[in-house]
Design goal:
The chain contains 13 helices and no strands. It is mainly alpha-helical. The protein has a single domain, classed as MetI-like fold. Helix 2 packs across helix 13 and helix 4 runs parallel beside helix 8. The protein is globular. The mean pLDDT is 83.
Length: 307
């Protein structure tokens, strides 16, 4: 017990997290999985876009996860698609983090009419169907980019892909920051009249310094927890959009587009089960691991977690 008193809050949180076996197993899995998909090109593995004559090959010694309609190695496609899905999730969560934390800090610290006005905007955005909003935004962007690909000043294919990625990041991040803003605002409201904030104000600290040096460090734990829980929701959004054909476009792949491509091959004559099962299981296991880590962090940063 005496040792517990000498530990910092972050050290106590790490100790509680290590005691959470499901969260630790999920964290180890994510580290290994992310390392695998990042190092895949350096391992001399198959090119995910390499076409062969082995169309619809069942899982075997050469193709562990089988091949698709173009004879491409499904394992390589899944590793590439998982990397794309995770990048979209992390970048989208980062967009959500920047917008949500900034909005919540300002609303909670300033208070009054500013707070009321900013939170009414959040309420209005909450009332909108987020999936429909993202679908409309991406559809409009794709239509505009299609027009820009013709004419004397047509955009290159690489530029179009980059703009599509950017639109996907912004669209998913733009609908995921609302809860973050509410959580941060509530924490700031409970901290802005604390003694250490009043002392800093009396000593002449600026509002920016108070926010960044005194209030923000006290809510890092909650921000990290919600950020971890935001990543799987954005990955799921991206997979759903890619399944509808509005997300990642061929020949690029994500887990959602791979599942959609596999579903297209399902017919009454023959079912190429590996085209759906392997990408689907990868997506489900990844989302479960992310949620276990998020729940573990939430319990670890709980100030009443010590027993």
């Amino acid at each position: 017990m005496s040792e517990q008193r000498h530990l910092s809050p972050n050290q106590r949180a790490w100790r509680r997290f290590r005691k959470n076996r499901p969260a630790m197993v999920a964290a180890i899995f994510l580290v290994v999985f992310v390392g695998l998909i990042l190092l895949w090109p350096l391992l001399g593995a198959t090119n995910p876009n390499a076409v062969s004559d082995a169309q619809f090959a069942k899982p075997n010694g050469q193709y562990l996860f089988g091949t698709d309609v173009h004879g491409r190695d499904l394992l390589a496609r899944i590793c590439y698609g998982a990397r794309v899905s995770l990048v979209v999730g992390v970048v989208g969560a980062a967009v959500s983090l920047v917008i949500g934390v900034s909005w919540g800090l300002v609303a909670g610290y300033v208070g009054g009419r500013t707070d009321a006005g900013m939170m009414r905007i959040v309420d209005v955005l909450y009332s909108m169907p987020t999936v429909v909003f993202v679908i409309v935004l991406i559809t409009a962007l794709n239509a505009s980019l299609a027009k820009m690909q013709t004419g004397p000043h047509a955009l290159s294919a690489s530029t179009v892909r980059m703009l599509q990625f950017t639109g996907l990041f912004v669209g998913l991040g733009a609908v995921s920051w609302l809860t973050m803003a509410r959580i941060v605002r509530g924490q700031v409201l409970s901290l802005r009249h604390r003694a250490f904030v009043d002392a800093s104000r009396v000593l002449g600290a600026t509002h920016t310094r108070i926010l960044l040096r005194h209030i923000l460090p006290n809510i890092y734990g909650i921000i990290i927890v919600y950020l971890t829980l935001t990543i799987p929701s954005i990955v799921l959004y991206e997979s759903f959009l890619s399944y509808l054909g509005l997300g990642i476009q061929p020949p690029q792949a994500s887990l959602g587009s791979l599942i959609a491509s596999g579903a297209e091959q399902i017919n009454a004559v023959r079912i190429y089960w590996w085209l759906v099962v392997y990408p689907g299981v990868t997506l489900v296991v990844t989302l479960l691991a992310l949620n276990f880590v998020g729940d573990g962090l939430r319990d670890a940063f709980d100030p009443h977690g010590d027993r």
